[in-house]
Design goal:
The protein is α/β, with parallel strands linked by helices. It contains 6 helices and 8 strands. The strands form 2 sheets. Strands 1, 2, 3, 4, 5 and 6 form a 6-stranded mixed beta sheet that branches. Strands 7-8 form a two-stranded antiparallel ribbon. Helix 4 packs across helix 5. The chain binds flavin mononucleotide (FMN). The site of flavin mononucleotide has 23 residues, from helix 1, strand 3, strand 5, strand 7 and helix 4.
Amino acid sequence: MIIVYKSNTGFTQEYAKLLSRELGLPSYELGRVPACHKGGEVIYLGWLFAGTIVGYKRCAKLYNVRCCVGVGMSPPSVELAEGLRATMKIPAGVGVFYAQGGFDINKLRGAMKLIMKVKNKEIAARLNAKAELSEAERLTLEMTKGAASAVCRENLAEVVAWYR
Ligand SMILES: Cc1cc2nc3c(=O)[nH]c(=O)nc-3n(C[C@H](O)[C@H](O)[C@H](O)COP(=O)(O)O)c2cc1C
């Protein structure tokens, strides 16, 4: 088993490295995996873009994806992980998890930066309307203000348990 990931601004890469250390498995960026692993078993981590896991389809064509982890700025929920399975058409036997990542507006350029400036206002308005925020929601709100990270080992506990 190896870990393969696709990261845009580095947070998913951080999770891949944490998981690599925790499970003692090598990790490679999608597109830079040594050829000998073709068709082999993979834990895939990809950043979330408009409700999709970036790189999953490409990874699933090249490798035997056993577990897939989406990394986004949203607070985690069971519905979110199951929604990702449906959207990405991930087979029932494959583990699907969500880990809250991070966000940094200054690492974005062009269209993505503009889109997220608008999106962040919507997300912040929704969260500010709530009477109480969970710790994960509070982190998402911080992210909408510019930059924050939720990346930590604990957020990979479900993935680690799945592997063991
Ligand atoms: C254009 C764009 C779309 C995004 N769409 C989502 C989304 O649908 N759901 C979500 O939770 N996070 C979304 N995010 C946030 C990223 O998934 C989040 O910041 C993630 O941690 C980035 O990981 P990376 O640093 O590995 O690229 C989006 C970010 C960008 C720039």
